[in-house]
Structure formats: structure tokens, C-alpha cells
């Protein structure tokens, strides 16, 4: 059996609720998962929630709940948000599930037995927001955390340590032999020089609170939340429970992570896997932050936006489209409501929506809603078919680079070329002059281009594609379409019933 394409998002802390930042990672991963399925690949797409640790325990306490009650309530906010965004994850992992305890304890036991985990003492400045220690000179003014701005606390405790330092050489070698292990490249270089600077062993257990997975050999200690959370990627594919399944699915092709959590994923995690004798993931892909008013969203700054508020105004598909079209995946980018309205009107209402309305309208009007047959060999039609072939190749190339914005750019050259084709061929004039054969060829070709667009854009905008598919009266189900065959020219069947539906993207005015 072949190996599925395995892709993950970070698991999100349940001390917070979903917002457009966490949705950004999740939707990006979803589009890739859908794109790979469209190419006929088996995909395993994982997301979930990170439910242990001091931060979650503190939040629960401040709200008057037990950590488990709190996690049980908050997790539904994530499940609902992803469902509302049509996220097609194959599994949703919660770190408080038994399967995760089994996997984590299996992992810990192995490392402990072979001497990669030992008891030691650690003191240092700790930020609960990051669940991480800081060196004195990495702190911001007033001994505050550079990320959260809150005052750090001095922690001094007996902890178990993971022998991270022992893996520096092997990590460097892996980076050197796998240039795409961490992307984008500037982040890879940062991580590599961090490793070259020398690695310290790091503490993987806590005794100051109990909300976590106990170490199997010393249950006074709970596992450090990061060490435990990373293992979710193994748990979900059967580590410690189903060796056959694990062997089939692991390693992940991609871990998608925000740049804020890259170090854990590209230094700690691969070292943990090396210690456990497991294969490393193909690529740790870091992406930038989504900024609102120039700042990263956070609970403390109260600048978080729930995806639902935008979905209510723009619809799910436009939401999914906008962030991946507007931002370049590896870089930071800003959200603005006006920017979203402008892009919606230009790309979706004008370019795409109008094209769909116009073409289906004309088939209804001039051909009683029955798709006519076209004649092959026309020059303009060959050009359009050529643009389609280029778009298919362009999308595939750009998706290989995770350049979502450029992939959509390649697709929009087809949308625009089809609009130009309709404009240049002027079917309304052909109808007037009763040039029926030519009129039929133009309407068939424009419908055919629309059909291909519906397939190609479906990873981003599945609902709209389903509607357009229905308007075009396609007999084969949309879900059964596979690239590249589905993008080959000429799959609309003359005689199929075309109907003009409601506009796909009604124009919007800036009201907010
Ligand atoms: N629980 C850890 C991750 C453990 S993974 C083994 C965590 N959780 S988090 O809830 O804080 O979410 C972190 C991730 O959410 C970021 O790495 C990023 O993927 C995403 N984002 C959170 N805010 C974001 C933005 N403002 N912009 C883009 N992505 C953002 O860290």
C-alpha cells in the first residue's frame, strides 16, 4: 500500500479561541490537502488542540473550571470554526485523549531507558505565555518576555532533561543533506546557525503543577507541554498502538507552523525523533504572521478577529480565497477589511462571478439551456486551451512551492483570458448575425473553460465550484475529478443542461 501524503497544522492551545491567525494556518493546510486529493493522492490531514500545561491550567482556574472542563468547552470552538470554514481534516487530535498518553509514555520510556533523559536541575527566567525559558539577555526591558511583554518569573526546579546537545552534529548534517527541511530558506539559515551556536539539553518535566502527562517512571513529574505536544504528530498515526498503520503513514511530508514556533519544530522535534530512531518529516514549513493594525493578534491586545465575523459578510469561499491570495505564505501580511472588499469585488465578483453569470446566461438565452457542440480547430479556442494548459502547469509548480498566491495568480490568468475571449468573440453579435456554428463554438469553449476553472479552484473554494458545477449541468460528480485529466480540454458534453444560477459573488460595498 502506498504512503499517504501526511500534513499537519500546529495543535492550538485551548486557553484561546480560534481567530483569523490560527485559521490562516489551518486553511492553508486544508487547501494543500484538497489539492493533493484532487491530484489523486491519498491524504492524511491532521489538526487538533494542545490542552495541557500551565498556561491552560491557569486560564481554566481563572475562569473557575477544572482544566479538563475548560478544555472540553473550548475545543468545540475549534471544531466548529474549522467545520464552518470547510476544513477537511481527517482527524482531530486532543492531547488529553488516552491515545496520546499512550504514545507519549511509550516515547518517554524509550528515551529514558536508553539514557537520553536524565534527572537534573534547572533555574531560569520563564514565560508562561511561551511555556519556555529565556536567557537574561534575550529578555526585553523590565525583564519581560519579548513575545508576550509580560514579566517573566524565576523558576528553579529539579527536572528531567532531554539530551538535546548530543544531537547537534546530526541535526546539522540533516540540514545540510536536506536543503528543504526547513522553509523558507532564510528561516532555515536562522535555525542552522542557532544549532551551530551549540544546543543545551532542555528540561522536559515539571513538578510545580499537575496538569499534564505523568512520566511513567516518576509520576510526581508531568511532561513539559511542548515535549508532549510535538508527539501528537506521532500519536495520530498510531505510534505505540498500531505499528502497521504507523509504518504506513509516518513520516509527515509537511508540518505547517507559524514562525513563532519554528524552533521547537525544527530543532527540538527532529532531535527527539532521532533519539527515538524515527524518520524525520520532509519539511517544516514556517509561515508569517497575519497582522491586524500592524500587530500580531493576541488575546491580551484584544485585536483578535473570529473567522465567523468575516464569513458572515463575505461567505466561506471568499474567506478561504482572500487570505491565500493576498498574503505571500512565508511572509508577514496585514489584514484590512477594505482590502478584503476590494479583492472580493475585483477578483471574485467581477472576474470570476461575472464570467460564470454571463456564460451560463447566454447558453440559456441563445440555446435554451442546452450546451451546444463546438467545432474544433478555431484559433481563438486553441489559444484558450493553451492558456488552460499553462495554468494547470503553473498551479502545480506553485503549489509544489506552497506559493498559494502565485498559484491563484496562474489560475486567474485563465479566468481573465476567458473573459477576454468572451469579449473578443462577442457571442451576442454572433447571435444577432445568426452565425450559429460560430456562436455554438464560442459558448461551448467558454463553458469548457469555466468547467476547468471550477475544478482548479475547488481546493480554495469548494462550495462555489459545486454551485458552478451544477449550473453547468455536469454529469460526473465534482468530487470524482482528478488532475491532470480533469483539466484537459473538451470534457463538457454537448446536450448537458446549463442553467443560470444566482450570482456566485454578489458585489459588496465597503460598509465597515
Ligand atoms: N500549542 C502550540 C503549538 C504546538 S504544535 C505541536 C501553540 N499554539 S497556539 O495556539 O499558540 O497556535 C500557534 C500557531 O497558530 C502559530 O504557530 C501559527 O501557526 C498560528 N497563529 C497564531 N497567530 C497567528 C497569526 N497572527 N498569524 C498567523 N498565524 C498565527 O503555539
Can you tell me about this structure?
This protein is an alpha/beta fold and 512 residues long. Helix content is 48%, strand content 15%. The protein is built from 18 helices and 16 strands. It has helices at residues 20-38, 54-62, 67-84, 98-113, 168-177, 185-196, 225-230, 232-235, 243-249, 262-275, 307-314, 316-326, 337-367, 379-400, 404-425, 427-432, 436-457, 462-472, and strands spanning 5-13, 43-50, 91-94, 117-127, 132-134, 153-162, 182-183, 202-203, 205-206, 214-215, 218-223, 254-258, 283-287, 290-292, 295-296, 333-335. The chain has a 6-stranded parallel β-sheet, sandwiched between helices. A 4-stranded antiparallel β-sheet has the order 5-4-6-8. Helix 5 (168-177) runs antiparallel to helix 6 (185-196), helix 11 (307-314) crosses helix 12 and helix 15 (404-425) packs antiparallel against helix 17 (436-457). The chain is elongated and about 90 Å long. The protein starts with a strand and ends in a 40-residue tail after the last helix. The model has no long low-confidence stretch (mean pLDDT 95). Bound molecules: 5'-O-[(L-methionyl)-sulphamoyl]adenosine (MSP).
Low-confidence stretches: none
Classify the helix fraction into a percent range: 40-55%
Shape descriptor: elongated
User: How far from one another are the termini?
Assistant: 53 Å
Strand content: 15-25%
Beta strand count: 16
- Average pLDDT for all residues: 95
**Can you list the ligands bound to this structure?**
5'-O-[(L-methionyl)-sulphamoyl]adenosine
**Cross-sheet strand order for the largest sheet:** 3-2-1-12-13-7
- The oligomeric state is single chain
Per DSSP, the total helix count is 18
Task: Report Rg.
Answer: 26 Å
Largest sheet: 6 strands, parallel
Question: Could you say which structural class the secondary elements and strand pairing correspond to?
Answer: alpha/beta
